[in-house]
Amino acid sequence: MGRLSRAQLQEHNRAKVLAAATREFAERGFRDAKIDAIAERAELTRGAVYSNFPGKRALYFTVLADLAERAPPPPDPEPGLTPREALGALARAWLARLPMTTDEPNGMARIGVDLMPEILADERIRRPFAQLVKLDAILLGLALERLRPPATPGGRLVRVAEAALTTLHGASRLAAAAPGFTDPFTVVGACERLAGLDLDDRWPYTPWIPRARPADEAWSPPQVLDAVRGEPARLTGDGGDGVVAILGLHRLEAAEEAVRAAPPGAAITAVLVTGDPGELAPLARLAVADLCGPLRQAFPPSAWPRLQVVFDDSGALAAAAGVLAVSDATEAAVRIEGGRIVVRADGRGACHTAASTPGEAVAGEAGPAAPPRPSAPVPRR
Question: Which domains does the chain have, with CATH numbers?
C-alpha cells in the first residue's frame, strides 16, 4: 500500500477516532467518556483527536449524526398514501429505532440517551436545536400537504407535523427514561389520528419584505447532497431554477417563506450555515437525518417535500451565491433563472422576496451586468 497523502491520512485518522468514540460513548455514556480513552482506543494521540474535533461534545454530535445518516430502514417499509397512513408509517419507522425495540449496543438509541441533557445545558445549543426541530416540522408538514386529495381545501399541515413530532420525541425520551412505559401501538395510533385534527393552521404570515436587488451573475455551485432525499441536490440544469436560501441556524424557519411564496415547480433549496461548524454542523445533520430517514420510508417519493436541505460547513455554496461571510443569524437568498443569479435579497424576509420576485420584475433596474463574485474563503463571524 502506497503512502497516504496528508488529506487521506487525516480522513483515515478521523474515521478511527469516530469508531473509537462510538465504542467509548456506548460503553461509558457521554458524561463518563474520556478523550484520552478515545485516543487510546484509536491508537492515536490526544492531539490527533483534537485536530479533528474541537471537543468531546462536537465528537458526540458527529457520532450521532453518522449513526442517524447510516441507519438501515426497517424491513419491508410500506409508504402511506394518505396523511393518516403516512403518519402511522412514520411513527413505526421512528419507534423501530428506540431501545424498547432494539438491543443494538452501539446503536443511536443507546448512545443518544445523553443528547437532550447536553442540549438543555447550553443556550447556545438550545436555540439552533429549536430551529432545527422547526425545520423538521416544516418538512413533514409539506410532505403531508402533498398527500391530500386535489379537491381538499387548502390549509397548512405544519401544526399537525409539530404535534406528531412532539409525540414522537416524547416517546423517545420516555423510552430511555422509563423503559416499558411507552406502548408503540398507542403512539402509532395517536400519530395516525393527528392527521384528522383541524388545528386552524393557515399561512397568513406577511414578513417584513426587503427590497429585491437585480443581478446578472454566473451561477456555478459545487456539487452537494440534498439531505431530504439522500441524493445530489438539483441546483443547475433542468429543475434547478428557483430560490437558494442561505440560512444560519437561528433563521431556519424562514425556509417556509420561500416555499409558500415561490411559484409551483420552482426548486427551493435551504443552505444551512453556521458560525460554529465544529459543533453545530453535526447537530444540524443529526436533527435533519433523525426525521428524513423515517420520512423517506413513510412517504412515497411523489410526496417528499420540494424543499431541498443542504449542509454547507465550508461555506463554498454560500460563496457561490455571493454570501462571503456567514453566521447563525444569516438570512440571504438568490433567485436562479436560466442558470444565472437574477435577484438578490438580504436580511429578514429575504426568502420571501427572492421567491416572489421574478427576474424580469427587476430587470429594468439592473443596469450594467454585475461581475461574478469571487469564490473566496468564507470568514466566520
Answer: 6-52 (1.10.10.60), 83-194 (no CATH), 213-365 (3.40.30.10)
